[in-house]
Amino acid sequence: MSQPNGARPDAPAAGAELPDEVLTVRDLVVSLGRGRARREVLHGASLTVRRGRIVALIGETGSGKTTLARTVLGLVSPDSGEIRVDGRLVSGLSGAELRTFRRSGQVQYVFQDPLQSLDPDLSVGDSIAEGLLARGEGNAAARTDAVADALRLVGLPVELASRLPGEISGGQRQRVTIARAMVLGPELVLLDEPVSALDAANRVQILDLLQRLRAERNVGMLFISHDLGSVAGISDEVAVLYRGEIVEVGTTRQVLTDPQHPYTQLLVGSAPTLHGEGLSRSERERLRALLPA
Amino acid sequence: MPETTTLSGAALPTAAGAPAGHTVVEPAVPLLSVDHLTVTAFSPDHDGEVTLVDDVSFHLGRGETFGIVGESGSGKSMTCRSVLGILPAGVHTAPGSAVSFDGTDLLGLSDKQWMSLRGTRIAAVFQDPGSYLNPSMTVGAQLVEVLRIKGGLKRRQARERALELFGDIGLRNPTAVFRQYPFELSGGMLQRVLIAIAISGDPDLLIADEATTALDVTVQAEVLDLLAELQERTGLALVVVSHDLAVVAQVCERVMVMQSGVVVESGPTKEVLHDPQHSYTRELMRAHAEYGLERWDEERP
């Protein structure tokens, strides 16, 4: 288990050996839809991300992974439960408070498709500077410097700042969205399937980059993915979401080598590996029968 | 059974570093023969033709499972599309390319001739099943349509056969699914429906091009099981195309690794995984060792 590079001096004393919690989600209940179509999609989910740690949130399509991330960002309001960022309650903030919280840049996010999350008409540099501008920070020269630093941080040439998202490669674009997140000095980065659209070489490079950033910048990351492979390599802990409930939480080693919940066993046993056989068909059917219909 | 012969490295595609090390398995009587396939496209950016597939050769016997691995842009899909006769407009096979299926030269077929081959003896399943179905027709009606047009069945027979096929592909309640529209079904169910349509003509060759890529891991395992089971039961030759070496490793006896339109390595899957010859294959395997479940292999149950 990797240790982060020292907690902040003002970190709470509680749990001296553990870094402080940058994200605490407790008993989160969220419903989506209107009227009769309204459905509860998270039924009391709880999880914790500590400073400098990467927690993977895994689960199948429709399990509520993205809804959880959107709720943390304040894009969806929960029915009940609480979300704390760096100890401060952020669920249930009023409109103005929410805007201030978002502009603070404490929580940043990176999505699957960088082409969709970057404004096609905005240069890479302007996209990265946008958050600084919204926060009313520095003058133009300071922002240009910050953009250059952010580009270097993610391993991109500074000259890329003047290019449009459509003019650079998919891997470079995803680096740009990471630079855009990092330029604001976040404490928590939510990554929703950040490498799912990338080919093998870019996937490894982006995962390496995320590992480096969490160590260098001591950022907590919630890494949402359906890809067990990426999770196996990057995360310290794994939370398994199944139909709106966190059914298992543990260190990556525990969850992947000794899964407890039938769904986790099914998930881990279904993933193809180069040499392993995984679970047999009958074993998978047995586990499936144990899951709620 | 395929007969095993060892060719000299010189007979393999001429990519830099093309390996001579693996056992070359050649079917005694090939069902599908792809020889020196080169596919080019007109590109205004490059001021002329660009090569998408460069001198690719492979042979496949009845009942074989064959995997093609590569990233987007490696030419694996264009190779399949050449075999299926569905290259996009502006993309074509170059002179000297040869593709033959059970003795028929596929590159010289007319559209009409393709109609009696594609969807019956040669079938395919692709990544996004939803986009291949008509959203305003029930899935049952779509399979019935295929059976009537391709199989020449009467309405009642086609309906019976459709329900039978839905049962064959592991749908628990074929009658209910028959009446459902695509939007009412999950991705895994849709892919099963597409597989039912693909096997409705009792094909000799089924090409699954990233057919499980968009599915959840647990559903992917089910669909791969289904393909393997169909292959065993019907004896069709199965080509699995994927960016994921592990998917191919699970299903295929032989594998061909492509990069930038060129075959960089090919051979029996076990040999290739045990002793990868090309740096690109090694790179793919390293990615699994570092960012893959393989990282925990030794401790896994």
Automatic annotation (TrEMBL), chain B:
Q: Name one Pfam family in it.
A: ABC_tran
Q: Per the record, what is one GO cellular component?
A: plasma membrane
- Broad class of the protein's primary localization: membrane
The organism sits in which domain of life?
Answer: Bacteria
List the subcellular locations. Answer: Cell membrane
Enumerate the spans annotated as ABC transporter domain.
32-285
Q: Which Gene3D superfamilies does UniProt cross-reference here?
A: P-loop containing nucleotide triphosphate hydrolases
SMART domains, per database record: AAA
Q: Which family does it belong to?
A: Belongs to the ABC transporter superfamily.
Output this protein's name. Answer: ABC transporter ATP-binding protein
Species name = Nakamurella leprariae
